[in-house]
Amino acid sequence: MKEFHCGSLVPGCNWHTRHEEEAEVIRRAVDHMRETHGETIIRESMVEAIRSRIQSSNAA
Protein backbone atom coordinates (compact mmCIF):
# COMPACT_ATOMS: atom_id res chain seq x y z
CA MET A 1 0.00 0.00 0.00
CA LYS A 2 1.04 3.56 -0.72
CA GLU A 3 -0.03 6.47 1.45
CA PHE A 4 -0.02 10.27 1.13
CA HIS A 5 -0.69 12.75 3.94
CA CYS A 6 -1.55 16.21 2.66
CA GLY A 7 -0.19 17.80 5.83
CA SER A 8 3.31 16.88 4.65
CA LEU A 9 2.77 19.34 1.80
CA VAL A 10 0.12 21.72 3.17
CA PRO A 11 0.76 22.29 6.89
CA GLY A 12 -2.35 21.84 9.01
CA CYS A 13 -4.28 19.69 6.52
CA ASN A 14 -5.33 16.35 8.01
CA TRP A 15 -6.49 14.73 4.74
CA HIS A 16 -4.81 11.52 3.64
CA THR A 17 -5.33 8.71 1.15
CA ARG A 18 -4.08 5.16 0.67
CA HIS A 19 -4.10 2.82 -2.32
CA GLU A 20 -2.10 -0.04 -3.78
CA GLU A 21 -1.08 1.96 -6.85
CA GLU A 22 1.00 5.14 -6.66
CA ALA A 23 -0.80 6.58 -9.69
CA GLU A 24 -4.15 6.36 -7.90
CA VAL A 25 -2.73 8.01 -4.78
CA ILE A 26 -1.45 10.87 -6.96
CA ARG A 27 -4.79 11.18 -8.77
CA ARG A 28 -6.66 11.41 -5.48
CA ALA A 29 -4.17 13.91 -4.08
CA VAL A 30 -4.47 16.11 -7.18
CA ASP A 31 -8.27 16.01 -6.89
CA HIS A 32 -7.94 17.00 -3.23
CA MET A 33 -5.62 19.90 -4.09
CA ARG A 34 -8.17 21.20 -6.60
CA GLU A 35 -11.27 20.74 -4.45
CA THR A 36 -9.98 21.64 -0.99
CA HIS A 37 -7.03 23.94 -1.56
CA GLY A 38 -8.31 25.72 -4.67
CA GLU A 39 -5.43 24.77 -6.94
CA THR A 40 -6.64 25.43 -10.48
CA ILE A 41 -3.39 24.55 -12.26
CA ILE A 42 -1.53 21.41 -11.24
CA ARG A 43 2.03 21.72 -12.49
CA GLU A 44 4.49 18.87 -12.83
CA SER A 45 6.36 20.29 -9.84
CA MET A 46 3.23 19.79 -7.71
CA VAL A 47 2.89 16.19 -8.91
CA GLU A 48 6.57 15.61 -8.07
CA ALA A 49 6.06 17.17 -4.62
CA ILE A 50 3.17 14.77 -4.01
CA ARG A 51 5.12 11.79 -5.37
CA SER A 52 8.11 12.53 -3.16
CA ARG A 53 5.88 12.47 -0.07
CA ILE A 54 4.19 9.13 -0.78
CA GLN A 55 5.17 6.51 1.76
CA SER A 56 4.72 2.78 2.03
CA SER A 57 1.98 1.80 4.44
CA ASN A 58 1.71 -1.40 6.42
CA ALA A 59 -2.08 -1.12 6.46
CA ALA A 60 -3.96 -3.49 4.22
Question: What report would you give on this structure?
Answer:
This protein is α+β, with helices and mostly antiparallel strands and 60 residues long. Helices cover 42% and strands 17% of the residues. The protein contains two helices and three strands. The protein has helices spanning 22-37, 44-52, and strands at residues 2-5, 16-19, 55-56. The chain has a three-stranded antiparallel sheet with strand order 2-1-3, with helices on one face. The protein is globular. The mean pLDDT is 96.
Short description:
The chain has 2 helices and 3 strands; from the N terminus they run E-E-H-H-E. It has helices at 22-37, 44-52; strands spanning 2-5, 16-19, 55-56.
| Distinct helical segment count | 2
Structural class designation = alpha+beta
User: Roughly how many Å is the radius of gyration?
Assistant: 11 Å
Helix percent reads: 40-55%
Low-confidence stretches: none
As a percent range, the share of strand residues is: 15-25%
Largest sheet: 3 strands, antiparallel
Order of helices and strands: EEHHE
Pfam family, one: DUF1059
Organism: Chelativorans composti
Protein name: DUF1059 domain-containing protein
Topology:
Elements (H helix, E strand, L loop, with lengths): L1 E4 L10 E4 L2 H16 L6 H9 L2 E2 L4
Antiparallel strand pairs: 1-2, 1-3
InterPro entries: DUF1059
Pfam family, one: DUF1059
Protein name: DUF1059 domain-containing protein
Question: What keywords describe this structure?
Answer:
60 residues, three-stranded antiparallel beta sheet, globular, DUF1059 domain-containing protein, DUF1059
